[in-house]
Amino acid sequence: MGRASPLLLVLLALGFFFAAYNLLTLVIQYKDSSTGLGSGISDSVIGMPANFRKSGKSNLKFHVALTATDAPYSQWQCRIMYYWYKKMKSMPGSDMGKFTRVLHSGKGDHLMDEIPTFVVDPLPEGLDQGYIVLNRPWAFVQWLEKATIEEEYILMAEPDHIFANPLPNLAHGDNPAGFPFFYIKPTEHEKIVRKFYPEEKGPVTDVDPIGNSPVIIKKTLLEEIAPTWVNVSLRMKDDPETDKAFGWVLEMYAYAVASALHGVRHILRKDFMLQPPWDLEVGKRFIIHYTYGCDYNMKGELTYGKIGEWRFDKRSHLSGPPPKNLTLPPPGVPESVVRLVKMVNEATANIPGWDSLNSG
């Protein structure tokens, strides 16, 4: 009775470890957990809603929509994203329909003629409390209300997404498809989640470990979820405990909770997206998400947390686009990073006016 078992000691140690989580330990865990991910369909589906009906597969076209601002940082990413959308749209295996950049700056910019764009209003001044991502759910609410959208399904995407393979409709009927993020863990934040998802709604495990992007979802379902997503996001931001706990992923948790409040569960597809440098190969995965910096020494060794002798980081180009013909990584760098830089280089070499259209 007075002696702890080895298993209990291990569990306690793990508890202290997770309590001390920071970004560096998170990304290292992600590196370990993503090694050797299978690319086959059966290996890629890691979560399936209990009410899933296989007969619901529709193979219908989906509308590609991303929210964006008129800042140069957002603009150059949107241009690269749209370039690869156009290349992949008509390829075999693609169910992509039309494309919209939902611009939540309240006014048009110089890319209106280059990228199909729908202008919506930002949140009233001060309401986002400096957290600009809160404009995303509000942008979708306005777009869904005012725009004519022909497709039955919508892919919610982001500017820093690149289509690496033709993307089919991964949703099945009323079951949307989402990507499981390793850092979205509702069960580990049950006390906070319960502020917005009461017990009578169901177990916390009904809140999927996802954000809103990438997600392929029926338009009618998103029309129901989006207003709730706005309200939950604002309530979370106004709650100091929640804001501190969720930080930069608060809006992602808000979407997951809003979906659960409407009884919507997502098919979890780990082949939906990869995130260099932690995912080492593109394989059959569909979207490259270049949110993390890629830093290496000239031996091809990752130096995450320290600026590398060779690096690609989107945040190095906050005020304008990266130059054409970026230097390729040194030998030994993972294929996913090499592929990312090559795809950026191809886009910048072929997008008209890349060097001249630097500002609005």
Automatic annotation (TrEMBL):
It is a single-pass membrane protein. Keywords: Glycosyltransferase, Membrane, Transferase, Transmembrane, Transmembrane helix. Residues 62-355 form the Hydroxyproline O-arabinosyltransferase-like domain. GO terms for molecular function: glycosyltransferase activity. It is found in: Membrane. Its main location: membrane. This is Hydroxyproline O-arabinosyltransferase-like domain-containing protein. It comes from the Eukaryota. InterPro entries: HPAT-like, HPAT/SRGT1-like. One of its GO terms (cellular component) is membrane.
